[in-house]
Amino acid sequence: MSSGLYKALKGMKDIMPPDIHIWQDIEKKAREIFASYGYLEIRTPAVESTSVFIRSIGEDTDIVEKEMYTFQDKGGRSITLRPEGTASVVRCYVENNLHGLPSPQKFYYMGPMFRYERPQSGRFRQFYQIGVEAFGSSRPEIDAEVISMLAHLLSGIGLQELHFQVNSIGCEKCRPGFKEALLSFFEGSFDELCVDCRRRYSQNPLRILDCKVGRCIEIRKGAPSVLDHLCIDCRDHFQKLLELLEMLGIRYTVNPEMVRGLDYYTRTTFEVTSENLGAQNAVAAGGRYDRLVKEFGGPETPAIGFALGMERIVELLKMTLKYDLPAPEVFIAVIGERAGREGVRIVDDLRAGGVWAELGDWTSSLKSQMRRADRLSAGLVFVIGDDEIQSGHVKWKKLADAATGEVRISGIRDFIIEGKQA
Ligand code: HAM
Q1: 131 CB less than 6 Å from ligand 1?
Q2: Atom 22 (ligand 1) nearest CA
Q3: What range defines the domain where residue 397 resides?
């Protein structure tokens, strides 16, 4: 039952303990793995000029057409809360002349994205992505690097049983031929397509391949495959990528129907899905976007990246892993005001030494302080009263196995910190 006057907005949620520990673990692992692949963090604003997204994601996509949080600011400019990270990173790359630095330039980012979608399980209006973008190499080796890094990250956080799907959607050389083939395939059944697909027919027929409407799925059976229309260079690139993935032991399936919902892609596209999620089963997705830097006014610069959806990853981890909550190493229970004051000094000293220490409230009974220590799953508990202060010695108890012992009060810090190092 919720209470209070206010609620978070629909499709937006608070991320709190205990789940936040899972989030932090994923972020930590991601930073470690990205560092070993030479990806550096980049933080772009959460809001951009609306045209940054229209120009990159594409005018006829669901995101731009229906899902953007677009506002006028007080200066009358149209601004949009970022629905994804790639467009902002490309804007930043071009604006700051990062193409002048040695290639490839490799970046990662973490943060909230906003899409005004119909909220449902695994789909939010504010959701978090961790993403990477690598600029300046058109080699399939970098495609393999990006996909392998994603595979390492997912297995590193404990996720198995995921499906990697890859595809190539060609380049500006082979795309027109494929579009032609699609147009003639769908020409006869145009009137039976859904309203969206009829529009897609003239604007971007590739997206008919991605439609979720049952009738359209039926109609597109036997549609031309993009893989049969790749030019020699694209075919070679894709073939080499598949060989590299095999060499790296990454299990994948080729899915020629995977065209992705953003218009900037060229050549390689990929998606990672899980059978343990419902309809929104993509945990990560990405691909090449070799034309976008140029489109944004930069030099011809091939690029590739991916983004993973944090909420979906966390949900999967909660289904499969048991998480231990972090717990204080030390709990000091105190009897009487004098001991209470001494406790303040001791925990302050321990905390300065990097130890998570908690202090009981001397105005509460010892029993209720011990209950709190128990609830927190504290490691060692010390009970300090007038007698202990008088003698300078204090007993400790390990809650996990009830082991006990005694130390000098003045030696608690060394006892704990050296004990940790031992
Ligand atoms: P995307 O496929 O739109 O790609 O999103 C990537 C991932 O973000 C999805 O696979 C999903 O896990 C998560 N996601 C997307 N929308 C939502 C939502 N409403 N609620 C929860 N999770 C969601 C991109 O965003 C590209 N920028 C990826 C990329 C980077 N391509 C190249 N570089």
Answers
A1: yes
A2: 309
A3: 330-421
